[in-house]
């Protein structure tokens, strides 16, 4: 290709980009090919429409010619989920001569292929179509149109839209471009997917083609994820809560599943089974969980009816965790509800980790799906150290693939934690400041205002470091400190998190303070100490408080202390991230703050719980004739700004697991890197039998935590007497 030809192609593409940017906020309107009926909940083309004519003329001129340029954009309609969005696509498409780069862009943009198993096959076919078009040097304008289409799909959350649009991919590929290797496969697929429930339509050349039945918008919520399986066959999701008689299942998992059902986020066909060793009937299980179900504050209508409908989908099966015969019986019961449908199965292991592998073995061999997907959610803790975690991973992978294992950390499902990357990567004001040049220190604080109170048996075998710091706080730190991922794909995000964890120094004993709460009398009330709990050994050295300083050895964060603090029986209940910025060089107003320049430090606070909020501390002048300065907050309080109740973290994570979205779940190498940071410290604490510093119940923790912060010239932000505390 000559330089002139390259320049002409570049100019053509730039003109195309300019046209697209002018109309990017409209996105496009997806329409069924060659059909007068609606495709979703917005108008489709009639046979006299411009869209139809473009498609028909392109279809008619395929033989031996380049495909004509088509447009998937509409000037007057778009689905409501797209309105107001701006679609730009990757900038690297400007390098049209770099075909390998375009191929990698296609791979990146095909993240949506993983979101719904029913649409995945069609989406992968579409991706192959694009790659073939690149290989055959098809019209670049066609690639840009289709790339834009796929970019929109990637940002689509509704499982119903994903399901239907996934089918639409193949229609675009076959009816307009028809690469040779896909033509025969598509014809066979169209024959295989035709069922008695499907309607018949005609394409541009008069041939009959199978058209999937139209799903009205009002029914969309009930279809949910994976409404259709292979060959257009309806699918069902069976959710088995293993350990259904435990507190976590009753207080979190079943209420989260009901909330998803209430919001019409579960598939149309779903069944929930509780599985535990306790002897119980279906009615007894329903009675137990009915007391924990609540409706959203802003949607109280038909609450009781919804509860009864949900409870009728809940069943119980009693069995041992290590007996395959019991899981064979469970499999028979599940098949009774799945008859005639593609069976997708989700197992939630709400049980101690010592029986994870037994359940994985039994479920994999005796209760896994024969024609759909099987996924297993594993609840923390994931071992006690690097060795036990690796052993657990090896045990699970004897029976499950990494893609089937969903390691859940419910803190990753919290609204403010998920908003962390949005705050950073979509606001220009923050991204340039997110480095050692402007950030002085980062604090991750977790506090509870209650102790173990009769539940110390489990806690005593793990302690606050394993229970909170190694998972919850470290996951937040990784999200906070990671580099910009290539895309929002789960693997791209988790790759960056692993890089951060591997860049961190293993914790040293001199950078850690541990504590344990003791009894305290306040207001005439005596609060018991940790060892006063009857479930805790009297000589226990298990820490109920820990503070640590961590460091990331990379170019962005070199020298910045990341301070973690977590404890029980403290003065309040809170989880937050505090970003303290550096002092203003040559501050003209430093005399107004006296000798304490920390008072003039800007601070960004992200409060995860309770009362979710984001606020930025700034300095400003108090109104008046004098020059008096004050520290004020620019405050985004979620309850005041948004009328909707914030979903529970388990709701988000369960929905993601059903949809196959792995972004908020922990990968095995990520888990290995996390344990590598804490295992040497934990072994040293236990081998040397280091006694924790005692602190009163309801206090701010041991004094040693303040000395640790002072060692790095840091003041804990949550002890400053700020009215926001």
UniProtKB/TrEMBL annotation:
Organism domain of life: Eukaryota
Compartment annotation: Nucleus
Database matches in InterPro entries: G6P_DH, G6P_DH_AS, G6P_DH_C, G6P_DH_NAD-bd, NAD(P)-bd_dom_sf, Ovate_C
MF-aspect GO terms: glucose-6-phosphate dehydrogenase activity; NADP binding
EC number per UniProt: 1.1.1.49
Record keywords: Carbohydrate metabolism, Glucose metabolism, NADP, Nucleus, Oxidoreductase, Repressor, Transcription, Transcription regulation
Reaction(s) catalysed by this chain's protein: D-glucose 6-phosphate + NADP(+) = 6-phospho-D-glucono-1,5-lactone + NADPH + H(+)
GO biological process, one term: glucose metabolic process
One GO CC term, this protein: chloroplast stroma
Record pathway: Carbohydrate degradation; pentose phosphate pathway; D-ribulose 5-phosphate from D-glucose 6-phosphate (oxidative stage): step 1/3
Gene3D superfamilies noted in UniProt: Dihydrodipicolinate Reductase, domain 2 (3.30.360.10), NAD(P)-binding Rossmann-like Domain (3.40.50.720)
Region (Disordered): 1-21, 57-86
Compositional bias annotation for Low complexity: 71-85
PANTHER family hit by this protein: GLUCOSE-6-PHOSPHATE 1-DEHYDROGENASE 1, CHLOROPLASTIC (PTHR23429:SF13), GLUCOSE-6-PHOSPHATE 1-DEHYDROGENASE G6PD (PTHR23429)
NCBIfam families: zwf
Similarity-based family: Belongs to the glucose-6-phosphate dehydrogenase family.
Role, per record: Catalyzes the rate-limiting step of the oxidative pentose-phosphate pathway, which represents a route for the dissimilation of carbohydrates besides glycolysis.
Protein name: Glucose-6-phosphate 1-dehydrogenase
